[in-house]
Amino acid sequence: MPDDHATGHAPPSNQEPEQASAPSPEPVPQAEPEIFGAIDGFKLSGRISGWVVKRRGEHYASDLRVVLRRGEAVLAEVLPSGPRIDVTQDELIDAAFALDFTGLALPEELLDGTVDVAAVDSEGRTRGLEIYAPVLAEARQANTLDALGRADADTVSRALMALSRNPALAGPAAATVARSRQMLADATLNPERQQGGQILRHKATGPRIVFIGAGSTVFAKNLLGDILSEPALSSSRICLYDIDPERLRVSEVVAGRIVQTLGAGASIETTTDLGRALDGADYAINMVQVGGYRPCTVTDFEIPNRYGLRQTIADTLGIGGIMRALRTIPVLVGMTAEMERRCPDVLHLNYVNPMAMNCWALSRSSRIQTVGLCHSVQGTAEELARDIGVDLGSIDYLAAGINHMSFYLRFASGGEDLYPRIRQVAAEGRVPPHNRVRYDLLKRLGYFVTESSEHIAEYVPWYIKQNRKELIGRFNIPLDEYPRRCELQIAAWGAQERELQDLGRPMPVVRSNEYGGRIINAIETGEPAVIYGNVPNSGLIDNLPQDACVEVPCLVDGNGLRPVHVGKLPLHLAALMQTNINVQSLTVEAALTGRREHILHAAMLDPHTAAELDLEQISSLVNELLEAHRAWLPESLFA
User: Fold this and answer.
1) Beta-bridge partner residues of 531
2) What's the pLDDT tens digit per position in 294-308?
3) pLDDT of the residue at 504
4) Which residues contact 232 (CB under 8 A, 6 or more apart)?
């Protein structure tokens, strides 16, 4: 969630949203399956997974088989093992499937030339991908193989990370994968042809990119600068949407100055009409804050404070995160419903917190593809690089978990594990004062968490305690930090607003570490990139709930955004994340169903709240907060 004056959204209306038109009786095309597997010696193991829309009585999973072929010659074929998926409802539905296949022998010929790996259904329809021999050879050595963008990060993700940071670091595998992906996008899945070395999906006018909540002027400025700094995106059609006309006017001036500074050919339009903004959108970047700092965030701090429940940020978990989710999810659900009507193929880039709860709710309620974006993974990597004195560009890392509670499973450079250097920072007393909580958790858990100390301190029960001032001081925990930041920003906004609109001053455009621009550029050009995204756990992390929202590496290119399979997390890390997932799950259920009792259950199970208050206090606190926020909440919670 951007911290700079994110503009509030109006209270939700009790009016029912416009109903989508009934499904067509025409036959429904099959969704594209995704395949990934692992090579162990000369045997292929893995699974096929994806989504399919079918009618009652039909089945899909048992129709598929895995085929490896070169040209017309079939080299190997196997029927997947796994349960048959039968559709029992009368209407069209989405049915998830994931089938395991094992023991597929790979002939020696696979190591020479090009091989097609395909999922073939009973009617002979094929979905496949060219995989080049060097990728297979390197994958065989690492016991991993990427087939359709869901890969073990130790092979393909690592290579693409190096490629995306610095082409000079790209090894043969990265170059081969990049070539494979670009050729696939150009020749197979993307109707546009290659132009000037890039796959340009929008050659004439550029993509239409909508900023939702563009009154968050500073954050919008940074993202817009990232986007328009990309040559392939310089002619984008930018639409700025907000409910505050004055903040929208300022953002329009800033956007115009960015276009002028970069010499871009982008067009800028503004509107306070969401439907108009979304018409024909290719990308929607969401940065709203429902209820704003005043009154809602202030309420989230002041009422708990009276109970002795202190918070630092209160935007992700805890009683503040629960309340923020309850007032935000209905608004986001309404926005994605509008997207389904106005731009059904849009990619929704969500920066709105609480990230995991919002994205989880949208994955349950909408067909719009949403990816949640945060800067904690790449931001913390930069911090650690400074702490240990290693160039960030040489560092290869893998992180995974849930938003604001991911951990670096690998942090290395040139084959050297950098964790001993990180531990040395603590051993030598060089821990930055603002980072004491995270370094303490490293000592206890063995892994470094990606979110800041002030955030993580309120997701666990150990660091913020009533009447324990020495604990707060020892770990330098900034209580009430979010209100303090907001008050400072509000005080500085007048001067900042004048500076942003001062045509006599140059408008510097410096690229940020946000992922939004990189994602759009990778999709539009086919140039591969690796980002960390918050997506549904469709078999990505084996020992977290399969419907939860997880944060994992994602490969992005002309074929879209594909999450990377990570596998099992260390048991204790998964257990810690589960304490947060419990709260997320109950809050999402309450927001989507109106079951008020689950709000109390979420607060009861919240680690920090439960460590500080008894059940009577928690019940009273929840009721008082709900009543204070009533104007911003669905009436179903009060029925």
Assistant:
1) 554
2) 999 999 999 999 999
3) 87
4) 198, 200, 521, 524, 525
Task: Provide the CA 214 distance to its chain's centre, in angstroms.
Answer: 20
Q: What are phi and psi of 20, to 5 degrees?
A: -70, 150
Q: Which of 556, 33, 514 is nearest to 285 (CA)?
A: 514
Owner of token pair 């989504």: 51
Annotated catalytic sites, by residue? 375
Rg (CA), the chain: 25
Inter-residue contact 400 to 552 (CB < 8 Å) = yes
Q: Token pair 């490629």 is at which residue? A: 163
One-letter amino acid for residue 76 of the chain: A
- The distance between the two most distant Cα atoms of the chain, rounded to a whole number of Å, is 74
Domain ranges of the chain: 34-141+149-199
Provide the phi-psi class of 567: left if phi over 0, else alpha when psi is between -120 and 50, else beta: left
Report pTM.
Answer: 0.74
| Three-class SS state of 367 | coil
Task: Return phi, psi of residue 407, to 5°.
Answer: -130, 150
**DSSP assignments along 433-486, one per residue:** GGGHHHHHHHHHHSS-BSS-HHHHTTTSSSS--TT-HHHHHHTT--TTHHHHHH
The SS3 assignment for 370 reads: strand
| CA distance to 209, 278, 371, 391, 527, per residue, from 523 (Å) | 13, 19, 14, 28, 7
